[in-house]
Amino acid sequence: MEFGIAFKGEIEPKRTIAIARQCEAAGFEYCWFFDSHILWADPYPKIAQCMEHTDKLRFGPLVTNPKVRDWSVASSMFATLSKISGGRFDIAVGRGDSSMRVMGKKPGTIAYTTEFCEAVRQMVSGETYTYDDTPNPIFMDWVDKHPLPVWIAAYGPKALQMAGEVGDGLVIQLADPGLCSWFSEQAISAGKAAGRDMSKYRVLACAPVWVGDMETGVAQTKWFPALVGNHVADIVEKYGKGSDLVPKSLTDYIENRRAGGAGGDAYNYRQHADKDSDNTYFVTPEITESFGILGPVERHVEKIKELEASGVTQFTIYLTNGSEEKIVAEYGEHVIPHFR
């Protein structure tokens, strides 16, 4: 099991570097950054800073999307960061939920996102690619040709199919072992159906955590089910209750969300991933515990082992509640050693 952390980008630079160094010393393998350019500071300068102060950590956006940057600009930036770090750079890609919707725009289509993944992967590796209205193939002859691992964030059937057919790994914003198993099976099956060797396919589950009493843990992390609910509400609406295309537990959650008066139009993206968000009024302690990992150290170890058994290969902590150093220390001392 790999371990990672993810920043929103609101922490000041020197502290961000210090936390990245702490993570590396504690045994984490990945340091991810949210990439939603209106909501938070651009992550890539901070990634470059942290790369200069670490030796082993891998970095990347969790997640970027195909619609906010020209693909050649994105490829050049990714290749530059890979060069700076000696190849310690991945990307995780989504359609662009918060990044686009906060501007009143629509996320990218599945086809558009698929082509973006293929384009940046090829350009970072030094190959040529023709896209959009470019009359000739585009290539960058200065790159170091490091491979660019591409993780794809997905919930819906078509996005999961894309993740299996195109991605090197799947990102699931949940720490529920049953749901993680269901989602990863869909992606892996799609990859196999496309003729891919899925034996090395990776699955990343990401969620907030709290080591300590449950009441505080719920207060610190209840923003997360609200975020997840907003991401998947459209999927449940589109594919329908009673369908085998969406797990029943997720469908039931969205039904309860709707019954509580919540809806996509009421979701405030300015409070996206904010622990004090007003978006959480319908979220119960039970669903908060299910989606994240809360409680004593023993429960964290137990649940991560359940995630591992469900096919998850990396667990990434959303560090978003102001107790970043404490959580990293708890995991480094008490949790990660159980998986080494």
Strand % is: 5-15%
What is the ordering of alpha helices and beta strands?
A: EHEHEHEHHEHEHEEHHHHEHEH
Structural class: alpha/beta
CATH hierarchy class name: Alpha Beta
Q: How does the overall form come out from the CA principal axes? A: globular
Q: CATH superfamily name?
A: Luciferase-like domain
Helix content: 40-55%
| Low-pLDDT residue spans | none
The whole-number mean of residue pLDDT values reads 89
- What is the correct CATH architecture? Alpha-Beta Barrel
Oligomer: single chain
Q: Helix count, per DSSP?
A: 13
What is the CATH topology? TIM Barrel
Number of strands: 10
Strand order of the largest sheet: 1-2-3-4-5-6-7-10
How would a textbook summarize the main sheet? 8 strands, parallel, barrel
Kindly report how far apart the N and C termini lie. Answer: 8 Å
The gyration radius over C-alpha positions equals 19 Å
Number of domains: 1
Describe, in short, the structure shown:
The chain has 13 helices and ten strands.
Sum up the structure in keywords.
TIM Barrel; 340 residues; 13 helices; globular; alpha/beta
Note down, in words, how this protein is organized.
- The chain has 340 residues and is α/β, with parallel strands linked by helices.
- The protein has a single domain (2-214, 294-339), classed as Luciferase-like domain (TIM Barrel, Alpha-Beta Barrel), CATH 3.20.20.
- It has helices at 13-26, 44-52, 71-85, 97-101, 110-124, 157-166, 177-193, 214-221, 223-239, 248-259, 285-291, 297-309, 324-335; strands at 2-7, 30-33, 58-64, 91-93, 150-153, 169-172, 202-207, 209-211, 293-295, 314-319.
- The chain has an eight-stranded parallel beta barrel with strand order 1-2-3-4-5-6-7-10, surrounded by seven helices. A two-stranded parallel sheet has the order 8-9.
- Strand 5 (150-153), helix 6 and strand 6 (169-172) form a beta-alpha-beta unit.
- The termini are close together.
- 47% of the residues are buried.
